[in-house]
Specification:
- By secondary structure, this protein is an alpha+beta fold.
- It is about 30% helix and about 35% strand.
- Helix 3 runs antiparallel to helix 4.
- Bound molecules: 2-acetamido-2-deoxy-beta-D-glucopyranose (NAG) (3 copies).
- One 2-acetamido-2-deoxy-beta-D-glucopyranose (NAG) binds next to strand 9 and strand 12.
- It is a multi-pass membrane protein.
Length: about 300
């Protein structure tokens, strides 16, 4: 009986060992992730002392100007939105993990700053969420890059249309964290390596400005990073489709004054010509006003010129 139990015991021990041996050995990367995430809580801002602010550095890279809509006062741009910060809990000694210095893990697993564009109208993140990775360095610095299409509010100044220069400000801030909890920084240069020229606008500059705003209601301040996108309209299209026809029509209407008499002494041609040119001007004016914001702050140069002629 004793012998049988011992044999059975040995047998089970062998089975157990065989089972363990068939498992792949745990890698340095798995060991690191297990150690890091044992006590990690992604809901909490990762600082050693909650009185210190998390420093977040922004570095958006402009891809292209997708669309501008003067009538609804919005602009659409494509960009890669980069954020860098330090996570106190995500650091390790590379020597203990086979010299591994960098780790890529899904962004959804870690805490990340709630930074967004405050004058936002619409945002489309072009990368699916599960493909969105954070790159973590062994010293705890985290880099996140999100490709996105952003529609934000922009006040157009159209007085000089079609020779206008626009200043569209994209304002980044944290939604919940105040200036004491989160400080924002920017690089002096913006990343334009991926920028492709627009057919409608000439790019002039895309530069950051830091601003601290006090909100009276909550008695707190928030840090804003404003990126001023300065663009200048390429006027050729408008010159060819609006200005040139206007000049021709105006010339014709002036010639109309000298239209010849008919046999009975009436100037029929003059009336017809005058009416036709007036209608044409009305059509052109409608097309221009369709593209303009419904503002009373200033009329475009082109509209200003044409208004007296329509009256
Ligand atoms: C954040 O930036 C400030 C100012 O540059 C610096 O004094 C502070 O040490 C930084 N905090 C951390 C956690 O790096
Ligand atoms: C763009 O607008 C912002 C906010 O009004 C202003 O501070 C900035 O100086 C402007 N930039 C240029 C180049 O005019
Ligand atoms: C974009 O336009 C700028 C100036 O208008 C020009 O210097 C630059 O070469 C253009 N880039 C490309 C890729 O066409």
């Amino acid at each position: 009986m004793w012998l049988l139990t011992a044999t059975l015991g040995n047998f089970f021990l062998m089975l157990l060992q065989a089972g363990e041996a068939s498992k792949a050995p745990i890698t340095d990367q798995q060991r690191l992730v297990n150690t890091i995430f044992e006590n990690y809580d992604k809901a909490l801002r990762p600082v050693e002392n909650t009185m210190t602010a998390t420093n977040v550095t922004l570095n958006p890279g402009l891809f292209s100007i997708v669309d501008t809509d003067e009538a609804s006062e919005s602009i659409v741009i494509a960009q890669t939105f980069r954020m860098m910060w330090k996570d106190f809990f995500l650091s390790w000694n590379p020597n203990e993990y086979g010299g591994m210095k960098q780790l890529l893990i899904p962004l959804s697993l870690i805490w990340h700053p709630d930074i967004f564009v405050i004058n936002l109208i619409e945002i489309e993140i072009t990368l699916p969420e599960e493909k969105n990775y954070a790159s973590i360095n062994y010293d705890g610095s985290v880099l996140v890059t999100v490709p996105e299409i952003v529609t934000f509010h922009c006040k157009y100044h159209i007085n000089m249309f079609p020779f206008d220069v626009q200043n569209c400000t994209m304002r980044f801030t944290s939604w919940m964290y105040t200036a004491e909890q989160m400080d924002l920084f920017h690089l002096t240069q913006t990343d334009l390596d991926m920028y492709t020229n627009s057919t409608e606008w000439d790019f002039i500059s895309f530069l950051p400005r830091k601003e601290k705003v006090f909100h009276g209601v909550t008695e707190n301040s928030w840090v804003y990073i404003n990126y001023d996108l300065i663009i200048q309209r390429k006027p050729t299209y408008y010159l060819l489709t609006f200005v040139l026809p206007c000049v021709i029509i105006t010339t014709i209407s002036i010639i109309g004054i000298f239209a010849p008499f008919n046999d009975s002494g009436d100037r029929e041609e003059k009336v017809t010509m005058g009416l036709t040119t007036m209608l044409t001007m009305a059509v052109i004016f409608t097309v221009i006003t369709d593209q303009m914001p419904k503002t009373s702050e200033g009329m475009p140069l082109l509209g200003n010129e044409k208004r007296p002629e329509i009256k």
